[in-house]
């Protein structure tokens, strides 16, 4: 996977935010895919190279919320009105999602979460609390090229609440089924699954197959087995490490290789928050909604309108 230096990230951010070049122009300028340019902008924010502050009251689209809730049988939907720029949209969605998740956390004891830049952004927006009765639980193993942190994301979240955290020291995927079976016999894994069966709340983003394709190690060593016989063009997205098509059907064989929470444990969790801020994830969101995994959604009007149009 292409690793960009802070100087390169700063140059890309300068072109996008100050020079007002669009993603396509920047992609051509640096000979990088649009996905990598978008990821570079996210990385620039995460590393503190770019700092953005927006003071604007969040407006919601109640009509789109009703349509999305009825179409996909969701418990609750939050559709934010579009803001002038992609960056303003992203920050508004993350900030709003963090507030809603923290509201639901008031009555929760166990909260499961995945990993990634979006999750960190949400955690950073949490308001500090003292909750010694709360535990954050890591739901999945991690990819080999995940960014090194002094603390895991569940620890980052627990620090915000002065609470507990439970990590999963394992890879996201294991090709050898014996490895997973052996892992499941370990005492720490028994402890994890006791939490998985008693989760009150989960929050997560969704991925695309392109996020797999840019991971060279995963593509070389895992993808040939994981995605054998699967047409990548038919993969609408991934959620909780599991790929699915646009109709919401999971590719079950891949799920057998996932280290972490199983699908039944996910589905029995009463509140399953998903946050989507990128417009290129419309197909991924539509497929994810059709799986039935999502109960609560935070996104914006532009994404919701596209999903509703494609679902006709």
Automatic annotation (TrEMBL):
Domain Sugar-binding as annotated: residue spans: 59-309
GO MF entry, a single one: DNA binding
Pfam family of the protein (one): Sugar-bind
Domain of life of the source: Bacteria
Alphabetically ordered keywords of this record: DNA-binding, Transcription, Transcription regulation
InterPro entries: NagB/RpiA_transferase-like, SorC_transcr_regulators, Sugar-bd_dom_put, WH-like_DNA-bd_sf
Family designation: Belongs to the SorC transcriptional regulatory family.
Name of the protein described by the UniProt record: DNA-binding transcriptional regulator
Organism (species): Lactobacillus intestinalis
